[in-house]
Amino acid sequence: MNEVFRNIWHGLTTAAPLDQINLVLGVVGVWLMIKRTLWAFPIGLVAVSVQGVLFFQTRFYADATLQIFYFVALVWGWRHWVRDRGDAPELPVTALTPRGRLAIVAIGAMATAAWALTVGRWTDSAMPWRDAFIAAFSVAAQVLQSRKNLENWPLWVVTNLVAVVSYWTAELAYTAFLYTIYLVMAFAGWREWRRAMVETKTHG
Length: 204
Description:
The chain is built from 8 helices and no strands.
């Protein structure tokens, strides 16, 4: 266990400045999203831009390209949260119908399979199915978050949990630690948005 703590401490203290900035922006951005404040969007835009630069520098071009999608989704979400709230103080949190939830899971599963089979055939990826699952359902979660659907948080819980287990199994304690932070915050976001949705229905 001491080795695990040393690995985490080493990661925190020896990370490049841009990596440390990326961590801070990521945590702050998620916290602001939990609080449903519009400041989550400009912070999120900076965060995914920094993340894109980091991925590009390390030649993870697919991951870098994925940040462009997140950037567009955040811009659209920002506009949606402002434009469609009407005279209300904020856009209300909503939930998908059972059919909508099933559709998200089905689309995510198909995207995972297509991504994994493509990556597995044309690259030497060590864990194509894990990478594809995390990517596909992270995209789905980002779209739902931009729409202010409650279901974005359980998707983030699942993707972060898969990431924690994967990185821990690979003995990458520092990376697993970072995703554990996001996992805990996803549970907090789920609870906070659900409470907000119930209050809106009660007073609406």
